[in-house]
Amino acid sequence: MAAxxxxxxxxxxxxxxxxxxxxxxxxxxxxxxxxLKSGARVLDLGCGTGLLACRIAExxxxxxxxxxxxxxxxxxxxxxxxxxxxxxxxxxxxMRLSQCFDLIYMTGHAFxxxxxxxxxxxxxxxxxxxxxxxxxxxFETRNPARxxxxxxxxxxxxxxxxxxxxxxxxxxxxxxxxxxxxxxxAAHYRFVRTGKTMVGRSRIRFIDxxxxxxxxxxxxxxxxxxxxDWDRSPLTETSREFIVLARPS
Length: 249
What we know:
By secondary structure, the protein is of the alpha/beta class. The chain folds into two domains: 5-144 and 207-248, Rossmann fold, CATH 3.40.50; 145-205. The protein has helices spanning 5-8, 10-19, 24-33, 51-58, 70-77, 117-129, 209-218, and strands at residues 41-45, 62-67, 85-89, 101-106, 131-142, 158-162, 166-177, 182-191, 197-205, 221-227, 241-248. The strands form two sheets. It has a seven-stranded mixed β-sheet, sandwiched between helices. A four-stranded antiparallel β-sheet has the order 6-7-8-9. A hairpin with a 4-residue loop joins strand 7 and strand 8 (182-191). Helix 2 crosses helix 5. The longest helix is centred in the middle third of the chain and has 13 residues, at 117-129. It is globular, with a radius of gyration of 18 Å. The protein starts with a helix and ends with a strand. GO terms for molecular function: methyltransferase activity. InterPro entries: Methyltransf_25, SAM-dependent_MTases_sf. Keywords: Methyltransferase, S-adenosyl-L-methionine, Transferase. It comes from Reyranella soli.
């Protein structure tokens, strides 16, 4: 889980929450955390700007947020309530902490930033090694059968009004490699007031369900529950998401 250069940039990081606010996926992980006893230890692996980590910490949980991108952590540390969270800069592959956790989660499709099997297994093993007895790992990845990248096109623009930059428009361009499952993304931002434009480039990987199951086995993790969407609907071939709850095998 190396830092994507787009999230290292402070300006890109500052725009992130304007286009990626609280959503149904955050409700899912928040509700999962609230099944734990008060004071339980929670690790947000790939915490980004810390929106979810801070919300969980508000409810009496001991939360640690880990991310490899300094730009995102800068935003997280400035968030109201950030003092309740322990923030750590680290890649998921190499993270070594002195405590274990009752819940570890990766959200925001952070798992898809792992472009090689060895990196994915390394992160999953790191999570496994940091789980407490009866600890739970939860994360999601998009179902490649749904070809989500086909909807990431310039004609699907979003806009947000920011305090520092006024109105900002966002759109994506995506190019998929069917052999590797890797999608090259270009995120375009236009600052309406000045006409300035920026482009941030990143890559994510789509893998099928059998591939994901093999990675879990390699990391010595056993899936306990699968969901196909954030409403906890059963996983099917046409589900939008592969959402997995796993424990050490």
